[in-house]
TrEMBL record:
One Gene Ontology CC term in the entry: cytosol
Residues that span the membrane, as ranges: none
Signal sequence range: none
Official protein name in the record: Reactive intermediate/imine deaminase
InterPro entries tied to this protein: RidA, RutC-like_sf, YjgF/YER057c/UK114
GO molecular function ontology, one term from the record: deaminase activity
Top-rank taxon, per record: Bacteria
Entry similarity comment: Belongs to the RutC family.
SUPFAM superfamilies on file: YjgF-like
Organism: Planktosalinus lacus
Lineage of origin: Bacteria, Pseudomonadati, Bacteroidota, Flavobacteriia, Flavobacteriales
Amino acid sequence: MKKIIQTSKAPAPIGPYNQAVQTGNMLFTSGQIAIDPNTGELKISDIQEETHLVMQNLKAVLEEAGMTFENVIKTSIFISNMNNFTKINEVYAHYFNNETAPARETVEVANLPKFVNVEISAIAVK
């Protein structure tokens, strides 16, 4: 059985999908981008600020499911420019403990929704 996870503390979906789906003890989040959930505005002028907002949106979805970043077992990071990798990675590292950090891939893509610079999704387990 699947349970839809939805919170007003993260941006509403911009298409036919949900913020996350939980099945059993597994949570699968949709990719989060830097939309301010309070204003609906994109924040993409500074890659570090953008990445922090993406991670805060992801945190809000995890919390709605009763989880934290410690529950995350896998992330996928999509970036529009690999030259931003170091700055994105520096911000990302603030949200995970090195000893228990999840598995991850980082992929450069041609474009992302709303032409943002970074999108991150996660798989978590309770």
